[in-house]
Amino acid sequence: MLTMLVNPEIKELIKTRKYSELKEILIDWDPTDIADLILNLDEEERALLFRLLPKELAADVFEYLDYDTQIDLIRSMSHERIAELLNEMSPDDRTALFEEMPPNVVKQMINYLTPEERKIAQQLLGYPEDSVGRLMTPDYIAIRENWTVQETLDYIRKYGHDKETLSILYVVDDKGKLIDDIKIRDFLLAPLDTRVSELMDGNFVSLKVNDDQETAIEVFKKYDRIALPVTDSSGALVGIVTVDDVLDVAEEETTEDIHKSAAVEALEEPYPDTPIMDMIKKRAVWLSILFIGEMFTATAMGFFEHEISQAVVLALFLPLIISSGGNSGSQASTLIIRALALNEITLKDWLYVFRREIITGLMLGVILAIIGFIRITVWEYAGYSYGEHWILLAFTVACSIIGVVAWGSLMGSMLPFIMKKLGFDPATSSAPFVATLVDVTGIIIYFTVAHLMLSGTLLP
Amino acid sequence: MLTMLVNPEIKELIKTRKYSELKEILIDWDPTDIADLILNLDEEERALLFRLLPKELAADVFEYLDYDTQIDLIRSMSHERIAELLNEMSPDDRTALFEEMPPNVVKQMINYLTPEERKIAQQLLGYPEDSVGRLMTPDYIAIRENWTVQETLDYIRKYGHDKETLSILYVVDDKGKLIDDIKIRDFLLAPLDTRVSELMDGNFVSLKVNDDQETAIEVFKKYDRIALPVTDSSGALVGIVTVDDVLDVAEEETTEDIHKSAAVEALEEPYPDTPIMDMIKKRAVWLSILFIGEMFTATAMGFFEHEISQAVVLALFLPLIISSGGNSGSQASTLIIRALALNEITLKDWLYVFRREIITGLMLGVILAIIGFIRITVWEYAGYSYGEHWILLAFTVACSIIGVVAWGSLMGSMLPFIMKKLGFDPATSSAPFVATLVDVTGIIIYFTVAHLMLSGTLLP
User: Fold this and answer.
1) Which of A306, B12, B263, B331 has the most CB atoms around it within 10 Å of its CB?
2) Which domains, from first to last, does chain A contain?
């Protein structure tokens, strides 16, 4: 918001090389705004502007840039400056950067670190991918239970400068075991001579260093925390995870779920950064599986080839009927997958959903059937002839629609439950997957209804 | 996590009516855990347990419960207790509760409030629905620029108890105008005799009280803040919005987007809480629109009735071909809608996407065409006869698949851009919507290819 206003002015300062003036303005900016500005500059200007920033601010800004821009900037920097930057970065954001880099580059980068930072970086990279350890930073404030509030605040004033958050303090015993977490709020409100032990309630929520990152998302969602402590298997405090990093992971997972809903394998990178061959691979796998599934429509149609040849008019309504089932199935599966993801319903609610979706599906089917019936009647009177038995044909189409739409709703709502029960992600029962299943069964429903209703008239 | 372990023990304490013991345990619990426990009890136990909680904790727990449970509890309470609870709640959570209640109940509830709280509640409810004002709480800490750090910390210790957050302090001038926001971190790290004015950078991000809630989500995402100040049109500080409330709104919006992706009108309530008639209405609207769109398939098929009657075998592969187009279209539209939502691509990238999707679509088409060709060949040799011209038929199917899949990718990727350009939500071009469009065009592509390739052989 700020950026938009000052941009031309800043561009002018860059162009006219008024660097000291530029620096004066930028040091008061929010790091996210500087990051935004950098993204709007060309490569040369980026490097130039970034060089102006004091090292602490530079590290803050760097953490908000995307990987490609980070790499471009690193390429433009001297070895000294790279070392400065990497040592200044938060350990968690540094791990995120290293995760993206090729292993040989990471090795080189680690050499730039001071012995102390190197140890931290290597330790964090030692945790499994997608584990809480990879999101962690060891820059937290640990205090002891016999301290007073005054002593704690003095300690923070002295040692708090490079800590990731001061919002929550962690109480550890003499073996480093986490015994409580206390919000800074409690310290700000308590009389200064209060002991830490008096503020403790012995009740805290923590993550394990080898927990899955998805677990971290769940716990953050439930407890509304800014940061959570991370312990090793012995209960010793080894780091903290902050909510901003977890929100980034949560956004990635939502993207994965949305992609899955359209039967696309999760992309690891944003759309424009995914190489086209990767993109084709990610899409071809599911598209081929669906295609092979959909082949059963040809097989099903084969069984009714005779009926079609006797009443070609039946084929005209086939796409209309099967797509209606697919659409109602997509609606049902999407609603159920999301409700399961938000814990609005659980596995044991399947029977409740079953009953509900039968009713819903039948009602929706009736609505579409009426529209379909009207369509055929209007066309017939408008001069397009469906033959002497058109009214029987209209009833066949209408009854099929009711059956197919109700069946679609039922399949679409039950498949996510079945997937979950079998241990798969319910999101696997994506809309295209449901539509494919409903297409095959829809053909069978349609021609069976036709057989029952039209034998002796349209079908000899 | 904690709840699961202690639950049987707690149940036992409730059953044996050991209330003072129960109370002793609960006051150390996290409000979210107590809320969880309450949801797992039956109605009578809920009321009983809730009555045990001290009023401050009761209000905290109450804020984590869903609306239906909140109402049940209120029904079980005395007027005095309701008054106590409502006065103790955070103004923002209270607004959220009032928003759900019928207007006459809200009126009654507002009468329970003290004159001071009543004024706050009425003011917050006065802001438009979906505006930032409705998410706001006036419980913030405002300070003056001539104070010292010591004075500020003393002030917090005295007046901070009922404030929503102490993480960020707001500097206002003598007219109440917001002039800066400063993190508590800066106060914790600065020498005690530092003046507030020395900590100020004059750079802050704020929301306007009438801003849309979506704007608030965007700003929170960009600036990684725990809370943001809200000002009126004159720039005076009137409240703050905290990130937890914004995250709730963001989750609702994601759900809306996901529902839209399957052509369901956004539900206002969770799946199990939506009355079945509402559910049918929400689904019937789009289902009917899609159905009417899909009717064009019957019209398109009508044009080719003659071809079908001459070569019924053509109809067998129709569902397979059109569904492949629908599936590749769904993939493309979902990828593009999400990439647009995350600002990975913007409107001006349409040509880049256009080129990419033509190539991707053609490649995917070729892959499926090969599978389709093999399928027909295998069936032919396995004894299922597609007639003497089967190899021409196989080529017709294969070429149609390439055309339809490429066309599907292109339509799917371009529709979100078109929607956005026209001022609609790109998410409107949902997978079923794209599939319907591709079905109609797919039929035309298939029979046109058939006409070109089979004239003089299968088609006389």
Assistant:
1) B331
2) 2-126 (1.25.60.10), 142-250 (3.10.580.10), 274-454 (1.10.357.20)
